[in-house]
């Protein structure tokens, strides 16, 4: 059985506190009998504080983790073909969730470092790519457990191939979002 970090922290804190206070109690056994109740109350208060602090930290960490996009949210693949005048880039996005996913933007980083894209995400707008399919720019809604293809073009030379392709996605239920780096590259 694997324990979560918060309960382990609470247990270790309680052990340290009880050991520290307990060492003084052993030396003064007679004093403990006279004043044992107040020391016992002090121990209980410290343990309660440690437990409450551990639960608060655990709750906060859980809330933060639910906002973080995971790699399981979606995956993407891409390929590119040079036609002699332009790059045709095909991006396939797979929604791995049991609910809809929104594609907000796509950006492509070329060999010369230029960034071209479509759509907007996190107060940044992207342009430079021409959308061929679907016929409108993002956002696009991807149904649960399905794939969605985007085909874009960019007029540049053969010596400036695309290097990296990324897709900005948002989970419709939790509003978690992030960039998913697509796997693939230009075809020879």
Keywords:
single chain; 188 residues; alpha+beta; Immunoglobulin-like; 2 domains; 6-stranded antiparallel β-sheet; 5-stranded mixed β-sheet
Concise overview:
The chain has helices spanning 5-27, 29-67, and strands spanning 74-82, 87-95, 101-110, 115-121, 124-126, 130-133, 140-142, 147-154, 162-171, 177-181, 183-186. It has 188 residues and is an alpha+beta fold.
The chain-level structural class is alpha+beta
Strand content: 35-45%
Shape: elongated
Task: Supply the CATH class of the largest domain.
Answer: Mainly Beta
Report the average pLDDT across residues: 83
CATH fold-type name of the largest domain: Immunoglobulin-like
Number of domains: 2
Helix content: 25-40%
Order of helices and strands: HHEEEEEEEEEEE
Q: Low-confidence parts, pLDDT < 50 over ≥5 residues?
A: none
Could you walk me through the main structural features you see in this protein, from its secondary elements to its overall organization?
- By secondary structure, this protein is α+β, with helices and mostly antiparallel strands.
- The chain folds into 2 domains: 5-67; 74-186, Immunoglobulin-like (Sandwich), CATH 2.60.40.
- Helices cover 33% and strands 38% of the residues.
- The protein has 2 helices and 11 strands; from the N terminus they run ααβββββββββββ.
- It has helices at residues 5-27, 29-67, and strands at residues 74-82, 87-95, 101-110, 115-121, 124-126, 130-133, 140-142, 147-154, 162-171, 177-181, 183-186.
- Strands 3, 4, 5, 7, 9 and 10 form a 6-stranded antiparallel β-sheet that branches. A 5-stranded mixed β-sheet has the order 6-8-2-1-11, with no helix packed on it.
- Helix 1 (5-27) runs antiparallel to helix 2 (29-67).
- The protein is elongated, with a radius of gyration of 28 Å.
- The relative contact order is 0.18.
- The mean pLDDT is 83.
